[in-house]
Specification:
Blueprint lengths: L2 H10 L9 E3 L3 E2 H26 L7 E7 L2 E8 L2 E10 L2 E8 L2 E2 L17 E3 L4 H14 L2
Antiparallel strand pairs: 1-8, 2-6, 3-4, 4-5, 5-6, 6-7
């Protein structure tokens, strides 16, 4: 088993899910946003495959749904009734990468611990590494329901 598969199993055995670190999302160049989205999407496919290898024995699997169209790239991770959508919305020469949880913008905290208004402050994952925490948090939240 991979280290991430062990993390999924530990979570199912009762270990708390890690906190997902987010940062305020700001518009940036389209190539940078598209590159980030493709890297995170590729990593998501790997993590979903590893998590589902562990989850298969429990019956519910993580879903990975892609959206491609005018104005952006997006994908949604879903587990039971929980979901997380990661999107790179393109407008002209800039793009905004955002994270939406269960239909509402992620209302995480800033790096200094202060809460931010989700409607006025779009959020994104603080790094590619936070995708593991996001997948684990979806499993944990879905397992409680």
């Amino acid at each position: 088993m991979t280290p991430f598969m062990h993390s999924v199993q530990d979570l199912l055995d009762g270990t708390p899910a890690p906190h997902v670190e987010t940062v305020r999302s700001r518009p940036g160049p389209v190539p940078t946003a598209a590159d980030t989205q493709v890297i995170i999407r590729s990593l998501a496919e790997q993590l979903v495959s590893e998590a589902n290898a562990v989850l298969r024995q429990r019956g519910d699997l993580i879903r990975l749904d892609d959206e491609v169209g005018p104005g952006g790239l997006a994908f949604t991770l879903g587990y039971r009734e929980r979901s997380a959508r990661l999107q790179a919305a393109i407008s002209g020469r800039s793009a905004l990468v955002t994270l939406t949880l269960d239909g509402q913008a992620e209302d995480g905290h800033t790096e200094d611990g202060h809460a931010e208004d989700a409607e006025n402050q779009p959020r994104r994952l603080s790094s590619e590494g936070e995708l593991q925490a996001l997948v684990l948090s979806l499993i944990a939240a879905g397992s409680r329901h």
